[in-house]
Amino acid sequence: MTGIIRKSGITLALLCALLASWADAGQLVSPADREWAKKAVAEEKSISAPAGKNTVAVLYFKNNTGDPSLDPMRKGIPLLLVTDLSSVPGLSVVERTRLQALTEETNLGATGLVEAGTAPRVGKMLGARWLVGGEIGREKPTRVDLASNVADVPAGTTTGKTSAGGEIEQLFEVEKELLFGVLKHLDVTVTPEEEQRLRKPCSKSATALAALFLGVDAGDRGDLDKAEGYYRKALQTDPGVCIATDALKEIETVRASAPAAGKRSRQLLKTLRGGTSLTDSLTTKEPLLRGGKPLDIPGTRTSPTNINLTFP
Length: 312
Hints:
Blueprint: H1 2-7, H2 12-20, H3 31-42, E1 55-58, E2 62-63, H4 73-85, E3 92-93, H5 96-106, H6 109-112, H7 119-126, E4 130-137, E5 143-152, E6 157-167, H8 171-185, H9 192-198, H10 206-220, H11 224-237, H12 244-256, H13 262-274
Parallel strand pairs: 1-3, 1-4, 2-4
Antiparallel strand pairs: 4-5, 5-6
Helix pairs in contact: 3-5, 4-8, 4-10, 10-11, 11-12
C-alpha cells in the first residue's frame, strides 16, 4: 500500500484526513461505520444485550421479477423507508450505511443479509428489535408490486405481511402504501399531522428516483464521480427530490479534504474501497437511464436469494 501511495503522490497523513472526513456521512459508508461493523462481527457471540425496544432496521429487498432493470429498487425502496421511518416519533432507525458496512464486513453481499437464515444474526448485530425485509414483484411490464414482512428478532417470529402495488410511474405512492402497512405491523399510530407529513413524496418522478437509487449504489461502491452524476441527474429531473442535494454536499466534503491530491486521491480512494467491497454492488456494468423507461437499466444482475423473513 505504501508504494501505491507514493506513486500517487499522496501522503499517508493526507489519506487518513480524507477518510476521517467521512465520520458524519449520510449516504457514504464512513470509517466509523466500518470500525463498528468489524467490532460487531468480532463480538457477535458475546452480544447479549436486548435489542432496543423500538429499534428498526430495513434490509435490502429481493427482486423476484427476473428483470434486472428493477435491481436499483433493491436498495432504493429501503432507502425511502428508512427516510420515512426516521421521522416517526418513538422509532429509532438503524442507519442505512451501517447495514452496508455490515454487508461488506461479512461478505454476504447486498442480498445475503436478507436471507431467512441470516436475518436473526443481522438483527442481533445491528441491535434491532424489528427487521423489515421485502420483495419486488410485477404482474405486468408497467407495474411494480412490493411485499414486506416485519420480523420480531428476539421472538424469532413475524408480525405479518403487507403489500402494495401500482404503475411504476406512481412508485412514490406505492412506497407510501407499503410504509403505512409496515407501521401497522409495528403497532405504531401516527397523528393526522404526522401522516400528512409522511405522505409527502421524496419525488413524484420515477426517473428522478431511479437516478437517486443508482447514486446511492455508486457511492457504496466508492465511485464518487458516478454517484455525483446520478445525483445531479436526479436533481435535473426533479429539483425537489430528497437526499440528492445533501449527498452532493457530502461528496464535496470528502473531496475538499484532499484538495492537493485532486483526481488522483479520488481514484486511490475508489481503488482502496473497491478492494473491501466484494459483492455489495447491485450492478456489474455501467447502467444507463433511458427516456420513456425510467427504471429500465441494462447491464445489471440479480442474485438468487431467499428473503422470506420466516423463522424456524
